[in-house]
Amino acid sequence: YQGSHEDNEIYALRHHRRLHHREERRMRWLRSGSKPKTEEKKEEKKETDPLLPSDSSTSQGPLLKSWDLGFAEWLNNLQGHFGSRLLVLLFTVQHLLKGFASAFGQQAEPYLFRAYSVPAPQMQILSGVSLLPFALKPLIGLLSDILPIQGYRKAPYMLISCAIGTVGYLVVGLVPQSHLPITWLVVCLFAVNMQISACDLLSEAKYSEKMRETPSQGPALLTYVWFGLNFFSLLAVLSSGPVIHNLGPKACYLLAALAGGSVLWSVIAGQLEEIKLTSEDISAIWKKFALQKEACFLSVLMLGVTIGLVATGLFSHSPRTNVIVSVILAVIVLVSFSLVLSPVIAKLNAFCIIQSILSFPLTGATYYFFTDTAEQYPEGPHFSEFFYNSVLGGVVGVVSLLGIFSYQRYFSHWSYRSLLVTTNILLSLLHLLDIVLFTRTNLRIGLPDRVFVLGASALTVVVGQWFWMPQVVMLAGLCPKGMEASMYALLAGCHNFGMIVAANCGALLLDYLEVRPRGSPGESAQFDNLWKASLTSSVMPMVTVLLLFWLIPATSQRENLIGSGEDEATTGSWWRHWFPREAARAEP
Questions:
Q1: CB 470 within 8 A of CB 420
Q2: What's the first-to-final CA gap in the chain, in angstroms?
Q3: Is the Cβ–Cβ distance between 469 and 404 less than 8 Å?
Q4: Is 179 exposed, middle or buried (0-12, 13-18, 19+ CB in 10 A)?
């Protein structure tokens, strides 16, 4: 059926109603024990039919209706509200690319750095550099909004990013380590993440636009996105262990390239449902963005800070230097966004930045802690590739789905403030359990490493989903009409920028405490102070609990956070308050 998007929705709604009425008639027949007249007439013509009806014919209907636990009905409801094309687009981008392909690469990445004998602090810095395309989302969003290619705003940019990402996947997967210096490896990982970042952003802008039309179904659509994303991430994690063990980490990037290629089909098949813009449409877009100089300025600002972090991370091996540059740039970003955005958006964005920065990751050190051999770390857990990636990662993936399901069922009606305060405190308490592991106390009380890690990880991931999902809903709800791509990019870019700054801060913390493992024989002393780093990392996010009551509204997740006007992004900002003439010029 090749009609417009509105025609497709009407067609799907009518079809759903016909099926619903047919099901109601069938259920009335089952409850009454009699058959419709049409069925009786059919039976009179069949003399060979048995005298008594088969029990299976009456019991099959309810069974078929209940076996999927309501999943089909839920999916049909989403299709009726948003259309099948959007669901297919999100399946290829969010589930296959961001879920499967991205997870495959993430599982293999630390093994690539290990092959280069990169110490833990430097691993975190280089990994942060490779993730910087996610901070470039504002620039991608701005370009897609104001510079359409051949009249299209999203499809061309998705195709270009797919070409860049494919090259990165193939170089990492095919070029031997002896011919690929560590700097060029990071550049290729940067290219891979550029594809994921661009396609992720533009699909997020698409469903953000749809969610504003039907805000009551927003949590349901985000559940579809994140449930599928975690499900396919789980498939990638489960298969990554055997692949890395038997074929090496480079093979993961070759397989991920196949999953990422599905986005090409989705875009070419028209799942974006883009309407070609006329020259008049483009002129109107330029006039609208001329009134939003602040948003354009913030996009250029994010480009500048990203370039600064890339240059510092690639050419400076000092954690101290990277943190100094990161903190200075973070202050500039936080102040700039708070000045030019409307008070509601500015406060929520400030929370996301501060929360991200204070969550110091220690992944570089914990990777070596878990995977070092008996020769390298005699007292360590000595997890194999299969257990560390497939078993542990598989359990985390399964409980992630449980976390999303329980959020949708029990917590999607909570207010933002109540849920974020509760989950923030719970997460900090759960992270304190890592100290028991890093001090090896669990062994002294007779609790094996594998049992302890699986249990603690499962609890942390479930609560982490309860903490993360309302932030996703919040980001999507802060995008003014007509500026979905650029505004979502700015807000998501700030969050990703904060995570990269946090990775650099975590690297400095490890370096200061002399936790610098690199997979060398006899490096037990490198983990002596890891528990101190873990304690600091667990306590720091508690600071944001004090700010939550000021920055986060006590609004339900099912309500719009901003008005429906196109000027809501900067209305009432400090910048417009201080410079009213500029604000008057920006009025349409």
A1: yes
A2: 40
A3: yes
A4: exposed
Location of structure tokens 């209706």: 65
Nearest in space to 100 (alpha carbons), one of 259, 226, 257, 222: 259
Rg for the chain (alpha carbons), in Å? 26
- For position 217, what pLDDT does the model report? 74
Q: Is 572 left (phi over 0), alpha (psi -120 to 50) or beta?
A: left
Sign of CA dihedral 441, 446, 449, 450: negative
Arithmetic mean of pLDDT over the chain: 80
How far is CA 328 from its chain centroid?
A: 26
Is the separation of the CB atoms in 282 and 273 below 8 Å? no
What does DSSP assign to residue 541? G
Nearest to 368 by CA among 88, 151, 121: 121
| Cβ atoms of residues 313 and 322 within 8 Å | yes
Burial class (CB in 10 A: 0-12, 13-18, 19+), 393: buried
Helix axes 102-115, 218-247, angle to 10 degrees: 40
| Pair of tokens at residue 337 | 């966004």
Six-digit token string for 190: 């940067």
CA distance 234 to 236: 5
Phi, psi for residue 415 in degrees, rounded to 5 = -75, 155
pLDDT, mean of residues 415-427: 87
The tokens describing 426, both together, are 């719970």
> Tokens at residue 261, please?
């290629």
Residue-level pLDDT at 25: 54
Cβ proximity of 217 and 205 under 8 Å = no
CB contact at 8 A, 568 and 562 = yes
For the residues of 92-130, what is the DSSP string, one character each? IIIIIIIIIIHHHHHHHHHHHHHHTT--HHHHHHHHHHH
User: What is the per-residue pLDDT for 223?
Assistant: 81
Sequence-separated (6 or more) residues with CB below 8 Å from residue 122: 317, 319, 364, 507
Angle subtended at Cα 134 by Cα 132 and Cα 136, rounded to the nearest 5 degrees? 80
Q: Find all residues with CB under 8 Å of 123, minimum gap 6, and list them.
A: 110, 113, 363, 364, 367
The number of CA neighbours under 13 Å toward the Cβ of 477 is 27
Residue 449 near residue 570 (C-beta atoms within 8 A): no
Q: What is the pLDDT of residue 251?
A: 92
User: How many C-beta atoms lie closer than 10 Å to residue 399's C-beta?
Assistant: 22
Cα 497 to its chain centre, rounded Å, is 14
Q: Tell how far CA 563 is from the center of its chain.
A: 26
Tell me: the pLDDT tens digits for 61-70? 443 344 455 6
Q: CA torsion sign, 507 to 508 to 513 to 519?
A: positive
* CA atoms of 337 and 334, how far apart (whole Å): 5
Put simply, whether the predicted model's pTM sits higher than 0.90 gets the answer: no
Identify which of 51, 68, 385, 422 has the alpha carbon closest to the alpha carbon of residue 238. Answer: 385
Residue 109 tokens, joined: 């990445």
Name which of 10-19, 210-219, 576-585 the model is least confident about: 10-19
Distance from C-alpha of 193 to C-alpha of 254, rounded to nearest angstrom: 15
**DSSP letter string over 392-407?**
HHHHHHHHHHHHHHHI
